[in-house]
Amino acid sequence: MCSLLPEEIILNILSRLPVKSLLRFRCVCKSWFKLFSSSDPNFVKIHLNHAIQEKNFSVMFCRVTLYSIDCDNDDDDAVEIDYPFKSSRGYVKILGSCNGLLCVTTDTVNSIICIWNPSTKEYKLISKPPFEINRNIDIAYGFGYDFKIEDYKLVSIARSGSVDVASKAKVYTLGSNSWRNVETSFPFNSLNWEASGVLVNGVLHWKRSNGIESNAPVVIVSFDIADERFQEMTLPKCLHYNSDLVVCAVGGSLCIVANSHKDLNVDVWVMKDYGMLESWTKLFTISQQSGIHYLRPIQSFKNGEILFEAELSGSLKSALVSYDPKHERATRILKVQSILRWWDTVTYVGSLVSLNSGLKWSRSKKRKQ
């Protein structure tokens, strides 16, 4: 590439640009076309790391169809976006988000599962997990990245009926384009089936109750994507169980939000050192005077504020709210609102990650064998 600037400086500048700009610049020269077409995995990783570190994220949520909001833009209107199977009937459900890739599906009988990069428009339709389907089956999902093999995986956990027995689990790997069985001895009947697995530190997490009583202890079921192992994780002993607990991730840390039924206060807990149970720490409490309740953190901003999905006081509507923990106040309520209490809401960063990356790894591995 011809320039008065050294090549490393040019690459540094380009790695900080949004994907939309890079895709336009592919026509500048052959080397840039190759660079921005995911042919250079090092540039793709550098670009992705910059986007994650700078928290250049957008929010995508479902309300029958898919909408996106650019949180770095002062114009915070939600924009309806196209997606691969938009013409099909049924609601859209987001199963997970990782490195700029989203895993989405529909709620129809003949549901479609799709791994999709909204920035490059690349997508891949995948087969449904091969469970024995019956009307009593429930399936929970989680989506993430296996750093050991540099590939993406979708895990599905199925339970059938009301008998508390060990459930079945299967894992789909993008590179092999196939599902495999995974051993598990946990009874998942009381798993939170409405929520997808929360991805932190290469591990997926779901909330699970140990009983049907309202004050029954709650634990977190985790699945290590690389090792493909299920484990249980306990919650802080001082956490009140008469609360609506939400498992989430903020700033790369595992987080628990306790929405109290008694006083409507909201306690936000974080595991500061992942895997260390004694590192559970209460970050702050949002009082009922704030006017927002039943919170679920979505993402943290560079200025320390946190984006929450929240229910507004005196209204049946919920909204996306930017909250300043230091000054204990909501600084911005995004314009998009809904009569629904919860949406399927995730954040994602624009990336050049290709769905062919797993296939390349799979083929090279076979050659080595």
TrEMBL record:
SUPFAM superfamilies: F-box domain (SSF81383), Galactose oxidase, central domain (SSF50965). Pfam families: F-box, FBA_1. PROSITE patterns: FBOX. Residues 1-46 form the F-box domain. It comes from the Eukaryota. PANTHER family: BNACNNG10540D PROTEIN (PTHR31672), F-BOX PROTEIN CPR30-LIKE (PTHR31672:SF13). This is F-box domain. It comes from Macleaya cordata.
